[in-house]
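W.,

You were right to be curious about this one. When I first looked at the sequence I had no strong expectations either way, so I just let the prediction run and decided to look at it fresh. Below is the sequence, 304 residues in total, followed by the output.
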Amino acid sequence: MKAVRFDEYGGVGVLKVVDVPKPVPGPGQVLVQVKAAGINPGEAKIREGLLHARWPATFPSGQGSDLAGIVAETGPGVTGFGVGDEVIGYTDNRSSQAEYVVVEEHDLTARPAGVPWEVAGALNVAGATAFAAVRAVALTEGDTVVVAGAAGGVGSLAVQLARRAGATVIGLASPANHDWLAGHGVIPVAYGDGVAGRIRQAAGKVDAFIDTFGADYVELALELGVEPSRIDTIANFEAPAKFGVKAEGNTAGAGASTLAELAGLIADGQLELPIAATFPLGQVQDAYRRLASGHIRGKIVLIP
């Protein structure tokens, strides 16, 4: 089967698609024929070696956690899924960007018919992260929350989940994404110089802040008077120790039950995960180049 591999840290040029043996599911595991696998910024950082101290790679390394596909084989003891079932899931083994992947049974959920393959395959990391971030800032009816990076993979879901929690949502994004945000009940605000003033003009008091981008957004939240306990960042690893803010993301939100809940909302038309582009597996380098170019609404997905 074909699978993405890299043999050393580096830029997109180290990524390649190679022939490897099809894996065999062990006890409690499921072999999934992958129909779609989303790509994520964290994968690029791991591949570049930027997270070596936190999440080192072992070479040759596979890549990818998000996936959706069709059950091809089940290992001993698997009772929840059978061959031919359509599933959404994830793997922690950096291996979903391939034609087949072995997944733990408890990391899968059924794909609702109303969720397209490319959306299903891109849902896990962004969805679990958005779910955890919104939960972390404890939104209630009448709160105002600012989401930085509001049109990205995580941000586009976080703004919608925050609206569902009853909050007024201010989304920081480039002007090209303002119509999309407004169409989802979000107040769009351009980032850049003077952003604090524009936020105050749009909202007055800000109760919570979700940072999906990094840079100086935690400092901005504090400047706006937000309590540290109601600031969550998924992109500034130093901020929790420095400022006492939260850093709850994919690890805090991950789980088949979260996937099932989000997929159900998508199937019911109550939540949208925008797909910016799809690429064949063989064009994995192009997919990550597109991701690195920035200003992407939603997700980029590989189709094996």
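Here's what jumped out at me. The CA atoms of residues 26 and 152 lie 36 Å apart. And, maybe more interesting for your project: The radius of gyration is 19 Å.

Coffee later to discuss?

I.
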